[in-house]
Amino acid sequence: MxxxxxxxxxxxxxxxxxxxxRGHVSDVASYAGLVLCLIVFTITSNGRLWSTYxxxxxxxxxxxxxxxxxxxxxxxxxxxMDISVGAQMGVYCLLMIFxxxxxxxxxxxxxxxxxxxxxxxxxxxxxxVWLKLPSIVTSLFLMFLFGGIQYLMVxxxxxxxxxxxxxxxxxxxxxVIILSIVVVAGVVFxxxxxxxxxxxxxxxxxNELTTxxxxxxxxxxxxxxxMAFGVCVAIGSLFLLARTGSAGKGTASxxxxxxxxxxxxxGMPLSGGMKAKVRCALVGSFTYSLLSNGLILSGVDTxxxxxxxxxxxxxxxxxxxxxxxGLLPR
Amino acid sequence: MExxxxxxxxxxxxxxxxxxALNGVDFEVRRGEIRGLIGxxxxxxxxxTSIMAGMQKATSGTMEYKGKPWNPSTMEQAQEQGVCMILQxxxxxxxxxxxxxxxxxxISKFSKFxxxxxxxxxxxxxxxxxxxxxxxxxxxxxxxxxxxxxxKMIEIVRSVSxxxxxxxxxxxTTALSFDARELFYKLMKRLAEQNKAVIFISxxxxxxxxxxxxxxxxxxxxxxxxxxxxxxxxxxxPEKIRYMMxxxxxxxxxxxxxxxxxxxxxxxxxxxxxxxGEIKHFNLKLHKGEIVGFGxxxxxxxxxxxxxxxxxxxLTSGSVLRNxxxxxxxLTAIRSGIGYVSKDRDTEALILSASIADNITFPSLDxxxxxxxxxxxxxxxxxxxxxxxxxxxxxxPRQLVSTLSGGNKQKVSFAKWTAKGSSxxxxxxxxxxxxxxxxxxxxxxxxxxxxxxxxxxxISEELSELIGxxxxxxxxxxxxxxxxxxxxxxxxxxxxxxxxI
Lengths: 330, 501
Hints:
The complex is a heterodimer of chains A (330) and B (501).
Chain A: H1 2-23, H2 25-44, H3 52-77, H4 85-103, H5 106-130, H6 135-157, E1 161-163, H7 169-172, H8 174-194, H9 196-206, H10 208-213, H11 218-244, E2 246-248, H12 255-265, H13 278-297, H14 302-322
Antiparallel strand pairs in A: 1-2
Helix pairs in contact in A: 2-13, 2-14, 3-8, 3-9, 3-11, 3-12, 3-13, 4-5, 4-6, 4-11, 5-6, 5-11, 8-9, 9-11, 12-13
Chain B: E1 5-16, E2 19-30, E3 34-38, H1 45-52, E4 60-65, E5 68-69, H2 75-81, E6 83-86, H3 98-102, E7 111-112, E8 115-116, H4 118-131, H5 148-159, E9 166-170, H6 178-193, E10 197-201, H7 205-211, E11 214-219, E12 222-228, H8 229-233, H9 237-246, E13 267-276, E14 279-287, E15 291-295, H10 302-309, E16 317-322, E17 325-326, H11 330-335, E18 338-341, H12 345-349, H13 356-361, H14 365-368, H15 376-390, H16 406-420, E19 424-428, H17 436-451, E20 455-459, H18 463-469, E21 472-477, E22 480-486, H19 493-500
Parallel strand pairs in B: 3-10, 3-11, 6-9, 9-10, 15-20, 15-21, 18-19, 19-20
Antiparallel strand pairs in B: 1-2, 1-4, 4-5, 7-8, 11-12, 13-14, 13-16, 16-17, 21-22
Helix pairs in contact in B: 15-16
């Protein structure tokens, strides 16, 4: 009798767990992916993953991904995307170097960059609405525009790489990095869960028509969402520059796609909506950085890294697509 | 004397995924009867008849027609054998002539070596039209020239032929004018007299009681009972039938019981010389504590009025005013206290992938937000109040709206605006796709709102709902007001129908 009871209790718990997993496939998959990466790379790298040096390298790279994808959350929650971020970040790094070298003021450089990111955000958000274009088209335009500017800027110096001697060491201090991540994540968490910005962007992603009929000026909030992204892009660019101290033609160009992949790895549906969570950016960007770092540490040939990323990406997409929410963008 | 049975259904089961539309229904059609089928939305009436008429297949069960196994694979096949169904939705092909529509699927009858003899076909079609008493419809004309109800008549002419043994009529009459209805009833009687059978689906109790010789009541995929003509004529029959449909006492308080059309003097919402779409220079004053109903055939423009009132349409002239301020968009509408329950519940009114709580608070977020902060405790309190008020059936307010039944979804759609404290509520078909039990609750809420001094604009396709609830009924026809009726115990649907068509 006792035993039967125990067994039925166990069955109950088991069925509760399976229904939870079924309802949260993408959540579970994203955490499982992170844990799996940690375990596998700890073994394959012979523990080098946890060496002091590697942890600090990892931290520096996580920091940029995390801050930028935290900002991207607002845009992706609407079911929109921005593929111009990489080219933008490249230009911002160059611009900051130019300004710092000319005036010696990092603050001025950062300020100019912030203004530019906000303008680009407004452009991405507003033009897409006015011309009734999918957001990817306006960001495609910006991507080529900034790519061209980046090329011209580097060409104008006569060398292939531009650098600055400014001392960025304060931005490489682990406590500064961690504090920055915590502050940005905290602000984004607040905005995303406790203010109109987060609720409206998710609403736009889930059902724009209903959201508009609830009295939401969708154009205005789209612009605000893109601008919030812009602020994070500016901060992220600062940390990126601090790491390298230099920039060239190809700097940062992969960030737009990296951010998208990071969010998907974190369980973010590309169609946006209610399933968008801050966790997607945090977990996803961590997994993504770990993947790049761990593969190289484990001695995988760099030429193979892309293939392995592709396979992992496929697996994640297939897993998340089984979830009925759908992952495809509009 | 029992008439000869013509069609027998045995243990018919129909499943749509996990939903059982029919759980083992036994049903018989006899010659010479006009059998009414009645039941709530989703009770399985249309499913049952569409299986008989070959529109879809049963999951299991057998049918016998004229003593032989009956298993039609298409509607055309069923029709050839004499089982015809006239559908709720219009089913004619635009851009073709009336004759082509009538003989669609039988064109080969008139063709030789791949060439169709159009003249002969048109002549034949005209003969048919004349025999049905609608000779004013010319067979050679394009079908687009005719109105919705003429097209319905053409459909009937197409379906019914000399070989027709069973005619299934699925809520067709709601779309027809008074004259056309009469014509239609005559046709049904004639078929019954010719010893054929008619299955008649309708929501209109009076129509069923007047026209049918037998009645079958369905509920949740089961046949609840059969009534003979005698039982149908007995006093108290409507109450009995309604009880069978719902499975519990509905009571007298279905619609509003009072006939008090008084309201406050204050104007809550004013349409001033409003032109929107094809509606020109429309004027209306909606007062506090007043329910103004809008009715008409679908496509008459009544939905536009509701949308304009909520700032969803661009006005070409005039303005919609609330407290002297213009309503320009949903934001100004909501801020001034207007709410809008859209007819398109799943695409416009609700975010299906969001929780009940998120849906209810959405229009209120603007007001809840203090220095950008939205207090989750305040949200929770608001949601609890509304869930309790409407008795929304859910495990937790965090449950997704997509998991709710139609009636509960509609309650959430209402709750959005009571949560916001809206004092003018525009409702577009608020009880569409909602069954009787929830309907009754909705009517009680609407009556309560009137008592609280709220102004209500009720747009409805159901005349009985307008007669039952509105203080004033405005009927639109072709985008213009064609009639106005005040609430009264004597007001009948037949009084209104004339101005609809």
